[in-house]
Design goal:
This protein is mostly loops. The chain is built from no helices and 3 strands.
């Protein structure tokens, strides 16, 4: 699965997920829950790009 990077530098890695925000490891970027935003800066998913 692909990693995606936020303009702030945060990288969403599907292998790690985002446990602090209820996203289990193995969750693809496209499958993130509605309303998920960058945990570092709050940017919405539309601003992320493939890392």
């Amino acid at each position: 699965m692909d990693k995606y990077e936020c303009p702030c530098g945060y990288i969403y890695d599907p292998a790690e997920g985002d446990l602090e925000h209820g996203v289990e490891p193995g969750t693809a970027f496209a499958d993130l829950p509605d309303g998920w935003v960058c945990p570092k800066c709050g940017a919405e998913r539309e601003y992320f790009y493939k890392a």
